Every structure is written in structure tokens, then in C-alpha cells.
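Sample entry (217 residues):
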Amino acid sequence: MPYKLASYLLGRTPIGHTLKTHSQQVVAIHPMPSDQIKHQLDAAIRRSPLLARPGFLIRRLHQIHCGLFLDETQGHDVTPVQYSLLTTLSMLGETDQITLAHEIGLERTSVAEVIARLEARGLVLRKQSNQDRRVKLVRLSRKGVYLLKKLEDKVQRAHERTIEMIPEDQRELFVLQLIRLVEANNDVGSAPFKLAVPKERHTESGVRAGKAERAEP
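Predicted structure, serialized as C-alpha cells:
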């Protein structure tokens, strides 16, 4: 599923309202009645009290996604973290390990270990920077580029299977809610995750518009 995140999702449109984009009408999702939500939550908690804990659910869903990822990509011996690193390198080009750690929200020591494993398989190449010999630069190898192309559709299926039990017209909203949680708490945790910072600009008509620029780590 391509996550289009239409303008409704990126805005603050109240649930149950309707708006029009440039190309189509988008209908906001109607909420489930509160008594029905409570009934289903109570039933779930009776199955296990852990189901009342968002942190547990997020961890368990991550475990499930990893299993689906490995199922879809079997035979290629790549983990979700390794795939995140490879795809980030494909977007950034050659970069240093610290920047790479910030881009994927992982500790520098963990990134170094992942890179070492990928290098041993010939998927990435490392060299010292000419400007600073203490800095290691990393880039995709030709083999790494080829692997990414082979995995793209398989990984997309893993993401789709992760949320396929959510009604199709609610999946983008679910993803948006996850984004909001991550962005609202991005300063918490042991590893920083670099996000784009909106920068105001003026259009030809003088109206302000937002433009995303990369934040400095």
C-alpha cells in the first residue's frame, strides 16, 4: 500500500468531516462508538492484561513485523535494521557513520556492527575520509544496490501484511498516529533520530508554505 498521506492526514481535520484535495475527495474516518470501544478493550484485557499496555503492544507488533519481514525476504539474510541502513545509504549516497546513525535512529556502536556485517557480505564499502582520517565513510556497493532492487517489493509486502487486519480505509490514519507518537517523543531515548525541519517560505502569491529541510544532528 503506498502511504499517500493526503492533505487530510497531514492536517487537523476533525474526524467525521469531509474535505477535497486537488484530485479527489477524502472522507475522514468515523470513530467507533465509545461504548463499543470499551466493550472490546475490556474483552481484550480479559484475554491478557498486557493488552492494555501500549508499550507492550508496540513491542509485540515489532516482533510480528520482523517475523513477516523475514518471511517475505527469506533467502536474502537481511534484517529490518540492515534494510533501513541500506535504503538510507541509497538515498544519501556516501556518508559517515555518525550521520547514518542519526538518520535511522540507532546507536553509533550498533550502526558500526551492522555496517561491519554488511561489509563482510560485500553489500557496502567503507573508506577513511580524506578530510578527517578518523572518520569512516560508507556507501552502497553495486551488489548492495542490486539487493535493494530485489527486496523492494518483498519488503513492501511485509509492511502491508503488518497492518492488513486494520480496515483499508483506516490504515493511513493508523500510520499517521504512529508518526505523531514518534515525532512528539523523538527527544526521548538513547539514540537520536533526525527529522526534517519545516522551513517557512513564501510562494509567488505571497502565501506562506512549509518546506522540509534536514535537521542538523
